[in-house]
Amino acid sequence: MPTGLNLETGNIPLKYAKRITELANHEWESGAFLEKVTPITQWLLKHWFTSPFTDNRSMNFHEGQKQAILNTIYIHEILKPQSAIETCKIIGEGFKEEEKIYKKLDDRFAYPKYAIKMATGTGKTWVMHALIVWQYLNAKFDTQNSGRYSKNFLLIAPGLIVYDRLLDAYLGKIKANSEQNELRDFDTSDIKINAELFIPDEYREEVLGFIQSSIVTKKDIGKKVTGDGMIAITNWHLLSLENEEKDEAKDDIYSIVNDVFPITPGKTANHSLETLDDRYLRGNEIEYLSSLSDIVVINDEAHHVHDNKNRGEKEEVKWQQSINVIAASKGNKFIQIDFSATPYNVTGSGQRRTKHYFPHIIVDYGLEEAIKTGKVKTIVIDKRKSISGQNLEALDFKAVREGKKVVSLSEGQKIMIRAGLQKLKILEKQFVSFSADKNGISNKHPKMLIMCEDTSVSPFVVDYLVKYEGLNEDEVVRIDSDSKGNVSDKVWSEVKEKLFNIDKYPKPKVIVSVLMLREGFDVNNICVIVPLRSTEAPILLEQTVGRGLRLMWRERQFDDIKAENRKKLLEEKKEPNSYLDILSIIEHPRFQEFYNDLINQGICGEGGEIPTDREKILGDLIRVPLKENYRDYDLYIPFIIKDKEEILENIKFNIDKMEPFTAFSLEQMKKFVKNKENTFYSEELTVKTVFGNYRVPPEVFSAQSYNEYIAKIVSAINRNVLKTGKHRSREFTYMQINTSEVARAIDKYIRIRLFNREFNPLEGDNWKVLLLTKYLIVEHIIREVNKLIYHQQNNIKTEEAVVLKKYLSDIDEMKMRKNYSIEVSKSIYKRLPYPSNKGEFEKDFILFCDRQAEVESFIKIKENITDFIDLTYIRDDGMIAHYYPDFIVKFKDEIYLVETKAEVNMNNRNVQSKKRAALEWVERVNALKPEDRMNCSWDYVLLSDKVFYEVKADGGSLKDILELAREVTGS
């Protein structure tokens, strides 16, 4: 078998990736994509990427993650290549330069193989989750036995850090005080916490059950029996047949002794029978994995699958050779998915240095795009011409040695450490004080990472920080590793809990490491990096920078100020307005070429002297607490409920209010079913399934009887209608419906009203008409039932209602931007915010409200802060969604919900639907006892900028404006 991955590819694979992206996006935007994939995939894509699902979730995939998922599915399900070679041929056909790649590919690319290039910190694990769900569900429901899907997965990590992170993601964090640190809490797993995103409701219990029962750790591969597939997680040592605890320096001696002398049972731990059994069984894991009929191998941090050079000759790393063995018997039933931010090898040095990208890259979401779109921190190089009067270029940045022994840090290293500490202290002071809650607890604890030359230097760094810079020992953590970046299990077990919870606590402040933390160290609060290493290897430099890229300030309220920072730094080449989500790298002269490359790409700025004032660190962000006399202006929102788990036993469906289906006649549809006979189902399942944005599982279209069809429709409606909103507190959940009543209502609707005539679904095969996805009958039924259930839920008899009062003052402070907020007197806060983008209308409304003598109190509603002011409405497509009006204004005996809109948007159908929902809500409120509605009548007004400014200019009061707006809009 030919060896080596160092093909002379240069940047050609990135051209491939760009072309794949263009093709996939064209198919997606045209709608053709969904018509060419399986019903399961179709349903997953709608759930992941389309409205209303994306509207009703607090988390969604960003564009880079979406592109990675789309490109993978596009190639695998639409292009359907049998191998990576075939993928290259399809994409590169007709382009002579690109053809050079696939002509060089060998049998290592003779099966489906996809490399996903995503910048560090952009959430590749979420893409991994999605692809596993996609493969598993398709394999489970693959009635055609296509062989293109699998329920077996092998996740390979490069080391202990990534291995532990994968276990956290799929099994959850280790329980406190668990025996041998092996018990994990599945509820804390990434896949469970974010299940709403990854798994549609219909499959959630099934997929989570599969994951929880099918995870196999590295020690149990080939030993643990699973019932419905397997997710095996290991690090590369298992596949390379190396002992991960032995030191690299002992490799040759270890191998010689191991080969010459047999190991016999003894008294030491290494000679226990259990240990000897484990050693004997080493290699059986590969044999077991090879015996499986199909498998998906996922390489995390796959840049490790590159060539080793041994005396000038190239060879594959041992664990890639093991992957090749596992793949050998499977043909195209073996799939390899490689994730890496740096999927390339480097040849040459200086000006002759060349990056050779892996030939099977299918998507390129690089650092440039990630930074410019705000998915990771913006990078700033802290450059100084001189520090303390010394020229940087004249300083030595390597540790001082006597012979080969390190005796102290150099002056250059000490200067870099002091510069990093200075910035860290300033950031810490401002970040912690700004983010602390009323109890003084903050989750914004900035950290500094120091990357050392080798393990002989790191103790001197710790010693210098403690003895000369005044840090306490518990403020510094040191993680040493061998030259491969490995650390023993014993050391790792002692430090990993402290390391992975580092964001939550003020200590430690400084992390000192060599290679161990170059990947998988997925924390958010690294704000300063001091690279003491002198290596110029591009991969290592990118990985070092990558440790600090993950966002620290993820709250949506900070998005606009961070966007302004990027514009000032990257476009205007000016100092940023704040240091929110800015990663400072203390300049190392040896890395100048690397820095220049970042700057030339427009993804890195140059820092000046470290700022000390608050405004330079936090920009115009301020904390606005409740006023001392806030009770004079406080308001509450009445939530009308009967019980958290209320069942509407007496739900009444008036089918006369349900619209009939008129798009096609019943005769046309019966004719279609008859013509298709036995071929109807397969064609519809694989090609014609287009069913809008509804929460309808594909199994609906494979129902075997009319009763099963009704049950599945009810299940889909139940899950959608009763779903808790993305901001809604569990205290105010929706009511439960009586599903048997819904089923009876749907049956009656189908028999009498659906086709505007009597229709017997049980006569012959009449009911199969209802399966015709081409005619959108399913979503029509759901739309009509949704409307009735929505109105039923909003018609509780007020004399039976229980009212919960949620006071605005429960939010004890608002964080806002000073430059986009206004001082007010008639609110519970001293200032109220308005949007930085096109917010002039809201700003003027706030000013006008505050000056009106008749206004007693008002508040600006912010969806991400006052998120409990949440109304539900029926969207234009028939789905239930969530709505947050802009303002609440209180007069003496009246309270108005006010929505401000530009005149051009007033007739938007969803705007009108929101208006109808708000009017229904205030009608219910007004039916309550006066003491449950602040002794006021409530009203809703949809206010256009045109009406506001015209009446204001004529000298009208706010009451005049609201009354006219109500007349104009029919509020």
TrEMBL record:
Pfam families associated with the record: ResIII (PF04851)
Gene3D superfamilies: P-loop containing nucleotide triphosphate hydrolases
Recorded superkingdom: Bacteria
Entry-linked InterPro entries: Helicase/UvrB_N, Helicase_Restrict-Modif_Enz, P-loop_NTPase
Assigned GO CC terms: cytosol
Gene Ontology terms for molecular function: ATP binding; DNA binding; hydrolase activity
Domain Helicase/UvrB N-terminal intervals: 86-344
PANTHER family xrefs: ATP-DEPENDENT HELICASE IRC3-RELATED (PTHR47396:SF1), TYPE I RESTRICTION ENZYME ECOKI R PROTEIN (PTHR47396)
Protein's name in the database: Type III restriction enzyme
Naturally occurring in which organism (per UniProt): Fonticella tunisiensis
